Amino acid sequence: MRLLAFVPIKGTLLLILGILIGFFFPLPLEYCFGILLVSFAILGYLFIRKDTKGSRFEIMAGVSVILLGMFSYVQYQPIHYDHHFSKITTTDTSQLHLKIRETLKPNAYSQNYIASVLTVDNKKSVGQLLVNQPLDSASKLLTVDQELVVRSTISEMHPPVNPHQFDFKKYMERNGVYHSLKLSDEDFVSLPHPSRTLIGYAQEIRSDIIQKLKKENFGTEQLSIIQALLLGERANISEETYSNYVDAGAVHILAVSGLHVGILLLLIQFLLKPMHSIPHGKKISLLLTVLFLWAFAFIAGLSPSIIRACAMFTFVAYAMYLNRPSNSFNILALSMFFILLVINPNLLFQVGFQMSYAAVFAIIWIFPLLQRRWYPKNRTLRYLWQLLSVSIAAQLGVLPISLFYFHQFPGLFFVANLLIVPFLGVILGMGICIIFLSLLDIAPSPLISVYNMIIGLMNRIVGWIADQETFVFKSISFDSVQLLLGYLLIGYLLYAFSKTNYKHLMLFLGFLLMFQGYTLYQEYESDNLQEILLLHQIKNSVLLDRKGKNLHVFTTDTTNAKRLIANYGVQERITETDYFPIKNSYLINGTSLQIIDSSGVYLPMDSSFKILLTVSPKINLERLILETKPTEIIADGSNYPSFIVSWKATCKKYDIPFHYTGEMGYYAFDIK
């Protein structure tokens, strides 16, 4: 099937290209709008002249879609507007009017929210920021739609301070959020009678449902899974249970997204099938299907993932109504076009969006190929083969993305899918039924007990699969080049599988050689790389000495250091890591590094040297500088912030370079 022959697919690819251009090469909003108007004017002129058959119209239409993607992305970023709150003069006493838009997953210390800035000092503004509410100073958590008057300092988000650390700043920027503020109870006043939004009502209803479910006789772990499975609330899942679902390749079950909405769509279609026999029954069935899908989205809180999934499967429901399987790719492309253009172009950079469409696209493409290769006559065997085929197709679709973002692959994913997915429709159906009965306070105890048992059994199955550690492949290094080559490799493998000819076989072998060659090159680079780094970690000192794939870690807290360097080890292809207590001094490329800890003991040096301050030594830094004359002073995360401020000022006074890892990031020693 020549996918690029379909207009919706070409249009969607061009729109994506435009969004990527807008992301990497952003133009001022007025320029994007002006160029887009000119392109539409030219396109309209060609249309009026009925010059729509030649290549000029096709090229101009393609250019217009690319420009539309650029404009869509740029206009969706409020930071490009003149009245963005960051461009209005703000001080520590500026008064901000905020509206809470979204509640994010909490951590052990704080609850985070996304808030819109409505005004700054009574001046109308736009933009969103991250609100951080420390749990130890919060008398009451905030809710969606709550409006606040705040006096607090807005700060820009900081990039990661250690190599290969999760870049939260970049993640939030790709969601249109560039600033944050910390909010204690004394920093804000909650306004009465705030304006309400549909998402706010949905979140309120979801909270009511969760409170009702808590009154039922569910086990703690079962209740946390039910909340995740049906309502998209994963905050209460224990770390052990969540890790089990990840290792078993079943973590997608815990996110209310494409899988759940797809199964729900099939369930609704099955229940409404008798309506097809009445006049206009199919149209009524389509209307009710879409209505039920969005009703489920509403009770699940209208989170971004559920909105995206329902939008996608609304188009799929329409494709099923048309009953034209050949249009599946068109419908999928149209849904992506609609979501990116109308809902949010930033979704293109979100992992959930990428994995959802990669999985659905792969199922549409790969599942028929597998069924044509083998179609068992036995009904039971055929059903199992179809389930396995869907699972294989979906895993092939998301495999490169999973390796790129999560660096692991569950070898027994098909077992989890064969044992759980067939019953997921029943689990979802029973769960929705229990939700409505609980809201009416008439949920029967036997039904609760049966459902509690089913969820408990699912947890045990997942736990058993996760325990087969031999089949869980972790710590797989996989970068962006391998991501691209991986998809090219899978694509041409499928082409060679479906249409075996010399050209497709040679292309597949060519991409295989490219993938292997690049991987061998990365291995060679890793074998020959040497570096010495001082990392940043609160209440700990971590010094890395890397020689090829061997890593020596000098630290005062081995347990915390292991968590810090986990990503570093994966990305840098480290095969052996050893831990040692940190010493008082090191010789690095002819330059001495003297470490002064809490004892405050230091020795005069004859040659040039650097000083590393750790564990907040109580020293007179001014006298130390005059006595020893170091070439540079370094401080890591084990020191008190008040000491850092004092040391920084002293170094500035004596014109001594000062590097604090908490502000400037990790320190790389020159070893050349």
Indicate the topology.
Elements (H helix, E strand, L loop, with lengths): L6 H18 L4 H20 L6 H21 L20 E8 L6 E11 L2 E2 L3 E7 L12 E4 L4 E2 L11 H6 L3 E6 L5 E3 L7 H18 L4 H12 L7 H9 L10 H15 L8 H19 L4 H19 L5 H16 L7 H23 L5 H28 L2 E2 L2 H27 L5 H22 L5 E2 L6 H19 L3 H27 L1 E8 L2 E8 L2 E6 L2 H7 L1 H6 L4 E6 L3 E4 L2 E6 L12 E5 L7 H8 L3 E4 L5 H13 L4 E3 H4 L2 E3 L3
Parallel strand pairs: 4-7, 13-14, 16-17, 17-18, 18-19
Antiparallel strand pairs: 1-2, 1-5, 2-3, 2-4, 5-8, 6-7, 9-10, 11-12, 11-20, 12-13, 15-16
Quick structural summary:
The chain has 22 helices and 20 strands. With 672 residues, it is an alpha+beta fold.
Task: Explain this structure.
The chain crosses the membrane at residues 7-25, 31-48, 250-272, 284-300, 329-349, 355-371, 383-406, 412-440, 447-466, 478-497, 504-521. Residues 27-187 form the DUF4131 domain. It is a multi-pass membrane protein. By secondary structure, the protein is of the alpha+beta class. Helix content is 53%, strand content 15%. The protein contains 22 helices and 20 strands. Strands 1, 2, 3, 4, 5, 6, 7 and 8 form an eight-stranded mixed sheet that branches. Strand 1 (96-103) and strand 2 form a beta hairpin. The model has no long low-confidence stretch (mean pLDDT 86).
Identify the notable features of this structure and list them briefly.
672 residues; alpha+beta; 8-stranded mixed sheet; globular; cell membrane; DUF4131; membrane
Structural class: alpha+beta
**Mean pLDDT level:** 86
The value of Rg in angstroms is 29 Å
Query: Which runs of at least 5 residues are low in confidence (pLDDT < 50)?
Result: none
Number of strands: 20
How many alpha or pi helices? Answer: 22
What is the terminal-to-terminal distance?
Answer: 55 Å
Helix content: 40-55%
Q: What does the overall shape look like?
A: globular
- Largest sheet descriptor: 8 strands, mixed
Strand content: 5-15%
